[in-house]
Design a protein that fits this description.
It is a single chain. The chain contains three helices and no strands. The protein is mainly α. The protein has one domain.
Length: about 90
Amino acid sequence: MARHTYSPKLKAQVVLEVLSGEKTPAHVAKAYGVHPNSVQLWKRRFLERAPEIFSEAATVQEYERRIRELEQLVGKQEVEIALLKNFLGQSS
C-alpha cells in the first residue's frame, strides 16, 4: 500500500472542515480521498498544538527583549574595549 504525503495546507483545510461540524469526519475524509484515521490524527494534533499559536507572540517578544539586552551588552563592551585600547596606547 502506497503511503501518501499531504501538504500542511490540505491537512489544515480538512481539520477546519471537520471542526466546523457541517460534515462528519468520515464524509470529509471521503471528500478529500484520505483515510478517516488520518483525519482523526490530524484533528488531534491540531487541537493539541493550538495553544502554541497564541503563545508564539509572547515567545517572539521574549526573543526581541533578549536581543535588545544583548545589543546593549555588546555596546558596553565595545566602549570598554575602546577605552582600554586608548589607555594602553597612551601608556606605551
